Amino acid sequence: MIGEGFEKGEDLSRGRYVQSIAHISKSMKRNLSMNNHDYPAVKPFLRWAGGKSKLVKTLVDFVPPSNSYDRYFEPFVGAGALFFHIGPSKAVLSDLNTDLINCYQQVAKHPEEVWNLLQVHREFNNKEYYYHIRSQKPEELKPIEQAARFIYLNKAAFNGIYRVNRQGVFNVPYGPSFKGPALPKKSLLEAVSDLLGRANLLAADYQEVCESAKRDDFIYLDPPYPPTNGTACFTHYTADRFNWDDQREVSKVFRNLDRKGCLVMMSNSDRKEIRSMFQGYYMQRLNVTRWLGSNGDRFKVHEIVVTNYNPREVRNGDQ
């Protein structure tokens, strides 16, 4: 919700501010609508540590109206909560996690077949079965079998965590809720299939994907967050680790997209190191409750949304 506490970075020069608003005002000359949905909103079908499902109704207030940008980019797509909520008509979704992208590709093309395979996992689910499926090598399975395996493990793993070791092997222990793994319904897979079918799905590095963005595209960056305990280890979504040098690269990509004339938005942990990387841009602190730690405790944490535009002006079409 855009309101109290919204701020510009302290070192934002007047020249840069005028230049940024001039570009946005030009884009706003189109007939802007407050409705930000091209297609009906649906919920994600995957669980994802750091996912935005519980925050999406707040984040959407920072998103430009759908007719103010050409394509929607989400290069750290994860569970894709924001994408599924706003339902853009043209999208580029990407992630380095090849299993995740294959899952999206198979659900996009074969939602009923994926659902049928999930019913087999549902029937046989128990702790022993989980570890048997976890021990399988994805490359030895058909792509559609890989997708069903990915969803099952995602739902039956402890706390919805996706974590791999340095060999890229999924290693989260068994731990669904007492009701068992909440596998997606057929109707949900069909709904997300419709949206995913309109998107370009890429297993690629975010920098490579962002290079293809053009003026008037909207890019939402949601990189792995720095840990709250100050250690050097970031969330392990892939065999490659995401460190502070990677965070600095994200800030460079953000600034390059800004110079191109793109609309850019980023979510991240509210830490002084992150704020310093994005001085000169609009920042809003959000209070978030997240499940953290191996015991599943809940903690109140602070996150920030950073944009290269004033969300209130863009949403209202001010010129």
List the SSEs and their pairings.
Blueprint: E1 7-8, H1 14-27, H2 56-59, E2 72-74, H3 81-86, E3 91-95, H4 98-109, H5 111-124, H6 127-135, H7 143-156, H8 186-196, E4 199-203, H9 206-211, E5 218-221, H10 244-260, E6 263-269, H11 272-277, E7 282-292, E8 297-307, H12 311-316
Parallel strand pairs: 2-3, 2-5, 3-4, 5-6
Antiparallel strand pairs: 1-7, 6-8, 7-8
Helix pairs in contact: 4-5, 4-7, 4-8, 5-7
Quote the average pLDDT.
83
- Tell me, what's the shape? globular
Strand content: 15-25%
Coarse structural class: alpha/beta
Helix-residue proportion: 25-40%
In short:
The chain is 37% helix and 15% strand. With 319 residues, the chain is an alpha/beta fold.
Feature tags:
319 residues; alpha/beta; Rossmann fold; Adenine-specific Methyltransferase, domain 2; 2 domains; 8-stranded mixed sheet; 8 strands; 37% helix; globular; disordered N terminus
Please characterize this protein's 3D structure:
With 319 residues, the protein is of the alpha/beta class. The protein folds into two domains: 7-96 and 204-316, Vaccinia Virus protein VP39 (Rossmann fold, 3-Layer(aba) Sandwich); 102-186, Adenine-specific Methyltransferase, domain 2. Helix content is 37%, strand content 15%. The chain contains twelve helices and eight strands. Strands 1-7-8-6-5-2-3-4 form an eight-stranded mixed sheet. β5, α10 (244-260) and β6 (263-269) form a beta-alpha-beta unit. α4 packs across α5. Mean pLDDT is 83; it is low at 1-6, 10-35 and 230-239.
